[in-house]
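Researcher: Re-running this chain for the archive, since the previous output was lost when a drive failed. Same request as before.
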Amino acid sequence: MADIVESFDETVAHQLMQLFGGQDVRFSDKPKPEMIRLMGEKKATEVCFFLSGQKLYVPHGRVGRRKAEVERLQAQNLTQDQIARALGISTRQVRNLSNAPVKPLPLFPDLPEKP
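Model: Regenerated structure tokens:
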């Protein structure tokens, strides 16, 4: 994904995550209709040309969202059991997420920070 950010920008990387997050994707030289709808034909074609023939794992980017969801549901005064059922996780995971410190994770750690 870092190559995509370097060659295009973070918006393209986020769009790929939105479409294909959590999947191994083999890109052809022609974009899929959903890529065209999200990115526009020109950008989707450029991305497919850049990635054609490659198999790429596209991360889902949900690492920090789970903790935020737990906190949001806790603010609504739901119990840990109710939160666990709502999110499809165990009550132990709810407890661990509730007690976990917030760690900001960079989306693309290999890239230098912008000034």
